[in-house]
Amino acid sequence: MKSTFIFTVMIAGATLAANADEGRLLRFPATNGTDVVFSYAGDLYKAPISGGEAQRLTSSEGYEMFARFSPDGKQIAFTGQYDGSTEVYLMPAEGGSPTRLTYSPTNARDDLADRMGPNNVVMAWSPDGKSIVYRNRISSGFDGVLMTIAPTGGMPEQIPLPEGGFCSYSPDGSKLAYNRVFREFRTWKYYKGGMADDVWIYDPKAEKVENITNNIAQDIFPMWVGDEIFFASDRDNRMNIFVYNTLTKTTEKVTNFTDYDVKFPSVGGGMIVFENGGYIYKLDPKTRQYSKISITLNAEGNKARPELKAVKGNLTSFSIAPDGNRAVVTARGEVFNVPAKEGVTYNLTRSSGANDRDGMWSPDGKYISYISDATGETEIWLQEVAGGNPVQLTSDNDTYIRWQKRCLCKTPSANFIR
What would the mean pLDDT of 263-285 be, rounded to a whole number? Predict the structure, then answer.
């Protein structure tokens, strides 16, 4: 029997936790020793480095990121997306209207999700506060150069290096510790090939560069504090912070995270801040002590608030019931039982935190099977059409499941081909 069905349904999004809960997924932190500024949901926020409620600094529809406090702590340079391209901006540390500093041609691969990261990423300030360093990506390729621009604007100048990435000046501003390769956005875990990055020191007076890590692992995000250069490395598999002493030429491990990588550390005001597991941590370079900063957010949470969505344009799979009167369809990670013409639509899964897909009707019409990652891995589940709780049929799966053909049997214990 050939059947058609009409599917128009509204679903609610994930429920947002109450205001002023501790924030998570806080990204790209920077500090002046007193406060920490970071990106959350695409905007910049500032909070005391001791913890507390965050103050929202920006509200543009574009993404604001990679903020860096000026040496005197009064201004914040950052990378923003206000006018259609990704550029360097400057604003007061207490908030206010941002001033655009750079004007660059639009890059075809100018996106935060790109494996090379966005264009014009703010890296650091010079110790005297007279220039802001940012990485400019050349065209859509893998090459990037370090540029400087004055806080008052004007023409940018290139640091005389053929390539460059995240960097940090020595305290007197005479030397620069830097990376050459775009490694911070890449997804090659534990990569040890020719594109693995090292930390280099550039000495403009001597007109030379020196590799101070020379390790097959990833050594990125150099941060110069006194006679030491801190950096992130995955030489022990998990990305942690290490430190190199410029006097003794020795390297030691500082942090010891085992669950999540240290991400996007930066230094300012004599303190280091970094991401780990979605939270922001602070590290005292002198004592080597580090701890999580408890930050609360009274954000609007517009992208996470409960809302109704029309999903008829997001169908990814369907299966017709044996009698042709109903169908099971997948849309936006939910599995629905819908009528062919008129009737009630049932959301079978209602799991905003999981991706449920590929619903399949059993030949006897009594069961609906589907694939879900509710447990953290893709597993096969079975749901009675008449109602009741779903039954998990597979467990401890270590691969990606997809249907090749429908169930051949008429019982819940059917052998699914996958």
Answer: 97
